[in-house]
Amino acid sequence: MATPIRMTQLSSGGGCASKLPAAALAEVLQGVPHRDDPNVLVSGATFDDAAVIRLDDGSTLIQTIDAFGPVVDDPFDYGRIAAANAISDVYAMGGIPRFALAIMAIPAGVEAAVTTEILRGGAATAHAAGVSIVGGHTVTAPEPLYGLAVTGIAPGGSFWVNSGGRPGDLLCLSKPLGSGIVANAMRKDAAPAEVLAAGVEVMAMTNAAAADTLRAVGPTAVVDVTGFGLVGHLHNLVRESGCAAELELGALPLIPGVRELVEADVIPGGSRRNRAAAAAYMSARDGAVDALITLACDAQTSGGLRAAVPADTDPSVLPGPVIGRLVAGATGTVALI
Fold first, then answer.
1. How is the chain split among helix, strand and coil, in percent rounded to 5?
2. Whether 226 contacts 17, CB under 8 Å
3. 198 CB contacts (<8 Å, ≥6 apart)?
4. Whose CA is closest to 74, among 31, 124, 39?
5. Catalytic annotation, pick one of 16, 172, 243, 297
6. 16 is an active site residue
7. Which residues pair with 138 in a beta bridge?
């Protein structure tokens, strides 16, 4: 639907709210009571993408929730992207998404047609992924927010976690990087239309095909790349796996045109904060291209699956390029080479 409203201008923060930094989140959660439950197989304690719960009949559910403010101006595309982003957490756990509840906050005075378009976009993505949106909750708020709480199943009770990586494993990435840069450029009218269009399609694409491909390979550890950026999410994986990682900057897939935007300093605050936080565990070789380091830390929206696979895996069967490897070394560290 053509509409004169610019969704990103409804958010005082300029679009997608940044994730609470991992260190700050860990500190906050220390004060939250934890209930031991043998049926909770995976929880937020390991910073995995979703929870895994075993039911009384032995079946296994995967549950997740994600929502954010507008990252693009078109309300239909906003709905598509937010839904793809939420559903991705189930794919990152090796699961099959089945049902969802919608979460929406919308400012008073926004036309009903705009709200409908957001919900239509979310439904289009969900239905294409085989997900039924069975209800939800909507409130009036100063700024828009939309997303899904998604329930999936773990086929045969098998699921993926972020803690099984081993030195020697290859790392692959299923989507190009740079969506945070693209969203920031849209807000500032600072990018060509073809760059913005490419970024929207990357964000709106689900990780269903990538998950199917990885399921045939048998990954050792998987995460989806979102607000902490590629380096931040990789740090979580190698910390939980008890090893280190090397990333090849020259091998990173990029949305066409985003490197030029970084070189023009069109960098969102969330990506700058990610890079600053990564200084505690990230190193870069002499002469590393600064723009590529920033893109490795770029806060992604609906990013790709980043998987560790056995060292003898044929790269041609992977859902994306090999971008590095896991290595023995200081636990949780990431070297950019």
1. 40, 25, 40
2. no
3. 182, 255, 256, 257
4. 124
5. 16
6. yes
7. 104
Please determine, for residue 335, whether its predicted confidence score (pLDDT) is greater than 60.
yes
For the chain, where do the domains classified as CATH 3.90.650.10 start and end? Answer: 170-336
Q: What is the mean pLDDT of residues 37-66?
A: 83
- Tokens 């069967």, located at residue: 317
Unique residue bearing structure tokens 């199943």: 153
What CATH number labels 170-336? 3.90.650.10
Average pLDDT of the segment spanning 131-157: 94
Instruction: Evaluate whether the domain defined by 7-157 bears CATH number 3.30.1330.10.
Output: yes
Where are the CATH 3.30.1330.10 domain residues in the chain? 7-157
With bands split at pLDDT 50, 70 and 90, how would you rate the model's confidence at 3? very low
Label the pairing between strands 322-327 and 170-173. antiparallel
Q: 3-state DSSP call for residue 167?
A: coil
Q: What are phi and psi of 103, to 5 degrees?
A: -120, 125
Cα(132)–Cα(245) distance, integer angstroms:
38
The two most distant CA atoms of the chain are separated, in Å, by 57
**How, if at all, do strands 40-42 and 51-54 pair?**
antiparallel
Q: How many of the other CB atoms lie within 10 Å of CB of 54?
A: 16
pLDDT digits (tens, 9 = 90+) for 272-292: 999 999 999 999 999 999 999
Res 174: pLDDT:
97
pLDDT digits (tens, 9 = 90+) for 210-223: 999 999 999 999 99
Q: What is the pTM of this model?
A: 0.87
Structural element, H or E, at residue 283: strand 282-284
156, 146 Cβ separation under 8 angstroms: no
55 vs 42: CA distance, rounded Å: 13
Q: Tell me which H or E stretch contains 81.
A: helix 75-92
Over residues 288-309, the pLDDT tens digits come to 999 999 999 999 999 999 999 9
User: How many CB atoms sit inside 10 A of residue 171's CB?
Assistant: 27
Q: How many residues does the chain have?
A: 337
CB atoms under 10 Å from CB of 125, counted, come to 23
Looking up tokens 């940044």, which residue turns up?
A: 18
Q: Give, as one character, the DSSP assignment of residue 192.
A: -
